[in-house]
Amino acid sequence: MKRKITAEGVAVPGAPFASAIAVEGGRTVYTSGFLARDSQTGTILHKGDAEKQSLVCFDKIEKILEAEGGTLQDIVKMTVFLRDVTDYEAMNRARKARLAGIDYASSTVIAGLAAADGLVEIECVAAIGGSADR
Fold first, then answer.
1. CATH classification at residue 102
2. Alpha-carbon distance 108 to 110, whole Å?
3. What are the backbone dihedrals phi and psi of residue 95, each rounded to the nearest 5 degrees, phi first?
């Protein structure tokens, strides 16, 4: 079972995620960090567009979770790495579009990324078979 945790004295995030998630049961899947790389050539797609790069990352995460019998609904924790803080809103638009209605905890880190044209890297932890929505 997956459920959102709220606590008195802890602000509710204004972004599309929860302060904390509790998980009981299910299998845990940890993804690597995904960049918007073309699966055949390895080149970064959508250079200069953090929103489109984020959508590619979510597509890759979704494929991994589906391969294990899960969905994006099973995400319990997400870490987003951005090259520049100015890309936060673009990434967040993509996140709101793809993850609307899904409770998960999240952190965003401003960091250098391994690919020169990569603006966004996203990794997730999911609890498959543990979602209360099933």
1. 3.30.1330.40
2. 7
3. -65, -45
| Helix segments in the chain, DSSP class H | 50-67, 88-99
Q: Dump pLDDT digits (tens) for 33-77.
A: 999 999 999 999 999 999 999 999 999 999 999 999 999 999 999
Which of 99, 101, 102, 112 lies closest to 54, judged by CA?
99
Q: Are 76 and 127 in contact (CB under 8 A)?
A: yes
The helix/strand/coil state of 102 is coil
pLDDT at 131 over 70: no
128 has which bridge partners?
27
Distance CA 96, CA 30 (A): 21
Record the pTM. 0.87
Counting the structural domains of the chain, the total is 1
Q: On the CB side of 66, how many CA atoms lie within 13 Å of its CA? A: 6
Other residues' Cβ atoms within 10 Å of the Cβ of residue 70: 22
